[in-house]
Here is the input.
Amino acid sequence: MSKRNFIDALRARLTPPAADAPYVCVLDGGVVLNPLLASALDSADCHRYDPNWPLADAPDLPAARKHSHGSEMAGVVLYGRHLADLLAGTELHALTHRLESVRILPPKPYENERRLYGAITSQAISRVEIAAPDRVRSFCMAVTTDGRDRGRPSSWSGVVDQICGGFADQNPRLFFLSAGNTDPNERHRYPESNDTDPVQDPGQAWNAITVGACTDRVTYDHDRFPGYAPIAPAGDLSPSSTTSLTWDKPWPYKPDFVLEGGNQIAHTDKRWVMDPDDMTMLTTAHATTGRVLADFRDTSAATAQAAGIAAALQAVYPKLWPETIRGLLVHSAEWTDRMRAAFGDKKTDHINRLRRYGYGVPSLARARDSARDSLTMVIEQAIQPFTKEGSDIKTKEMGLHNLPWPKDQLLELGETKVTMRVTLSYFIEPKPGRREGFVKHRHRYQSHGLRFEVKRPQETLDDFRKRVSQAARHEEEEFEAVGDTSGWELGPQLRTRGSIHCDWWTGTAADLANSGVIAVYPVSGWWRESKGNDWSKEARYALLVSIRAEPVRVAVSLFTPTEIDLYSPIQTTILAAIEQEVTTEVGGESATG
Here is the structure.
């Protein structure tokens, strides 16, 4: 069967996305209507920043004169890393999301002025939102520039933070950014070259999801490439992926997570690096006739995959906040064995692992469904962090949430080891008027910060409230996170970079049964220091908490209704909680739950 026949056969097996399916908007060099994109991309959904530019470069232009990257991104957004498998298969395939395109790159050889990067990004997003304001959508951009900022906000990343936060128009947005690629001429120095090549602008944006690349592709044609070996081992960082190991301490951990970005091979003398087709992924080419498929790799491919996973998640849960979808993706991420083995268990090792791999590799299945041995609680909440008393601005509200785990059933499990994972996702409002390079401290850039704490097993609720209030005051005064470290993988000092915090606690089922309460409390930012009325703004957050029993043999009996039924008591607890919302005073501050 010819390649064209494979493509036609796949198109015949595709089920188009639903009319109300979520959209992924690709900000790049434009997308052509490739046959494999036709079911999900309408010509009316292709836009451009400059009306004098073509919507996309003509496919028959020489490679050096056309932008083909956008069409390649679109294919991975739509099909993920499995297009080759779909072409070879015979099964039906339902598309879960649709595509939009905005061209933000001018025709070659022209380039945008650096000072306009933020404005172009903002106006590009306005184009699609004005054209179709009511769609559920996310944005995907794998266009980057140098990483000279070392994690400090730039004018471009600041605009991305404004776009995501949506404080100006009450419209928060989900945005995926590429971490950027390492110098191709230095990849034979893997992984040292990855650790010294920093995540590129605007990948330092706090509110966006910055995606790096990992790989499990280590097979290639040895006869064609004698004397070569894979650069990256399976389950480790892709040779192309930048990291934030050289960033200054206060700034967020980036990338947030990693996805497949392909691999390369290097000759034993380290002088030659090659790109076998086996180590890339197949995607849609920038062509309407002739060449329809292309190879694709690096952090661009990883970023496109992330956007596609998020859209598939939005198709199942269209009403979840962008903060929540972002939180679910990070919550589902796990480090591979190679990633864990790359560093030890000291504080600096945790930091280095987070700055190289983020939180690991996310999973649509884990994000979408509770596994057989796991239960996940999702809370979407808004609080007012600050209030004004006379001339003083003080902390006002904190969220206090009862964990709906069935205490009696957990107590029955006694010393059984369980893991509780907590992810807190929120958007900050960047400081307006901050010029590139001027921001030196995260507390002067963020509008507010949020933290979480879990009640200790032997702690009374009143003591817990007092401890949380003291922790909030300490960070206000010292700009240093404090809190409970017992049993936590990262602890309060390490998990508080940026605006998404994830940590996991391991202990006994009995201890978990006696914890049962989690608090989300605010810490300082420029809202509190503002001379205007910014102190009165509300802050939204998504809180995700899951428990998992280990080993699996215990979990299987744990979640089998005939033995120990956790689902029914949890459902009863949640239904009761929905009926009431309690506001109390905690250490002189308001708490909602």
Summary: The radius of gyration is 24 Å. Residues 152 and 439 are 7 Å apart (CA to CA). The first strand starts at residue 14 and ends at 15.
